[in-house]
Structure formats: C-alpha cells, structure tokens
Write a sequence for this structure.
C-alpha cells in the first residue's frame, strides 16, 4: 500500500511522516523530494503558535519576543541554541505564508526578536518573497511594520473573522 504525505502518528511530541515511502521523525517536515510542492505542516507547534499570535492580535498587545512566545505556546525551544531559534523562525514563516495565501495578514508581524529590537531580516525577506518589495527598503520603512501589526489587530479583533478562520 502506498502512503504519500500522510501523518502516521504522534509519538513523543514528534510526528512520524511518510513522504514518498520515507519515514521522518521530526517536530517539522523535511521534504525529501524536490518534486513535492511546498507543504504547510500543521503540527501541534504551528497550531499553538498561530493561536497564540491570534490571541496577541485580538488583545491589541505589543509585539512579543521569541522567548515569550516560546514560553506561552509551551514549545520547549531554547533561543540560545541557533537551530532551535531557526526552527521557530521556520514555524513563523510557514504560518505567515499560509495566512498570506488565504488573504489574511502576516501573523509573524506580532513577534520581535528581542524586547528592544524590531523584526529580524528574515521577516523582511519573507515579505519580499511574498511580493511586498525589496526587503532592505521594507526594513527602512518604519510604517511598514506598524501597518502590518495594525492590520493583524484589526483583522483578528473582528468577531466574524475570528469565528470564520480560527
């Protein structure tokens, strides 16, 4: 029996995937076949992060740090370990890409790297890949980030949007 792109089972906070007859045990998907389209992986981590970002937007909160998001979404990641910080960045990018594809605001705008630092280059590079313009110019434009955060807050504060897309 050929199982393709199927989540097999949840195992020790990891997922076991079957992709092109390869088993992968990981907290995130690793695509082994370049012919596969980009997959949006709805892991427990992605769901928890998305829900937490929506909650921040609905509460009209200030941007949150990676560390606060990790703690409140109970991800168990350590931002001092580069590959774990990168994993959170990948989760945020996956969520924002999916939200953009559905015509919703980029939820990763609600996150900042440190309490007194703005968005990192990865956010602006993601925005460039989504067609917003040159990432360096976007980073210089102080209104760009604030507009995205306000759009998130307005969109998710709307009860109809919240009920429809949660």
């Amino acid at each position: 029996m050929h199982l393709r792109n199927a989540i097999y089972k949840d195992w020790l906070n990891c997922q076991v995937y079957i992709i092109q007859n390869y088993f992968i045990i990981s907290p995130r998907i690793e695509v082994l076949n370049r012919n596969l389209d980009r997959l949006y992986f709805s892991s427990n981590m992605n769901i928890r992060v998305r829900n937490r970002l929506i909650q921040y937007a609905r509460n009209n909160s200030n941007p949150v740090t990676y560390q606060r998001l990790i703690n409140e979404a109970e991800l168990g990641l350590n931002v001092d370990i580069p590959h774990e910080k990168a994993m959170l960045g990948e989760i945020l990018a996956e969520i924002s890409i999916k939200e953009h594809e559905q015509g919703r605001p980029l939820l990763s705008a609600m996150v900042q790297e440190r309490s007194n630092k703005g968005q990192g280059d990865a956010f602006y590079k993601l925005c460039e890949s989504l067609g917003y313009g040159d990432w360096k110019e976007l980073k210089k434009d102080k209104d760009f980030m604030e507009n995205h955060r306000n759009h998130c807050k307005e969109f998710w504060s709307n009860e109809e949007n919240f009920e429809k897309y949660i």
Observations:
- Confidence is low (pLDDT under 50) at residues 1-42.
- Residues 44-165 form one domain.
